[in-house]
Amino acid sequence: MESDCRIPMACLRPRILALHALFWGLVSLRVFGAALLSDEKAAVAVTKAVTAPCWQHEEFVVAKECSSCEGLQSKTISACSQTGFVEKINCTNSNRDEYKSCRSTKMEEHLFWKFEGAMLALTVVFAILVVTRQHSLDRQASDKVRRQIESI
């Protein structure tokens, strides 16, 4: 007689159940944490709306192209802390000079090559693993055939 249970018995092992509970606990923590953070950010955004930089609500002209922050600049200009690069802009309506964080092409190129290097390294590692595993399986198959021939 077959059971009406549709869950495989292997899924009911305590270790598997603990891993599922841990996974779904982390997922729910992530979801509810994001909801709480978005509520806090919305409250902060309402208070910051008054002091928003002019480039967020006005037209602006770039006065100085994107460049890296030097020692003193990184401490005095808050926009430097985000990416380490800043551009000077001039807002047209209020005629204010402000600094805006930016991403430099040098930094983007550096991150691209870092990513490419990491992908190449992973490719080599996994290629070596595949070749090693294939040799192991070939050895096991030939041993099995040899044992079958010897048993005849």
Quick recap:
The chain has 152 residues and is an alpha+beta fold. The chain has helices at residues 14-48, 71-76, 80-83, 105-151; strands at 60-68, 85-91, 97-101.
Descriptive account of the structure:
It comes from Carassius auratus (Goldfish). Its main location: cytoplasm. Pfam families: JTB. Belongs to the JTB family. Interacts with AURKA, AURKB, BIRC5 and INCENP. May be a component of the CPC at least composed of BIRC5/survivin, CDCA8/borealin, INCENP and AURKB/Aurora-B. The protein has helices at 14-48, 71-76, 80-83, 105-151; strands spanning 60-68, 85-91, 97-101. With 152 residues, it is an alpha+beta fold. The protein folds into two domains: 10-49; 51-124, Signal recognition particle alu RNA binding heterodimer, srp9/1 (2-Layer Sandwich), CATH 3.30.720. The chain has a three-stranded antiparallel sheet with strand order 1-2-3. Strand 2 (85-91) and strand 3 (97-101) form a beta hairpin. The chain is elongated and about 95 Å long.
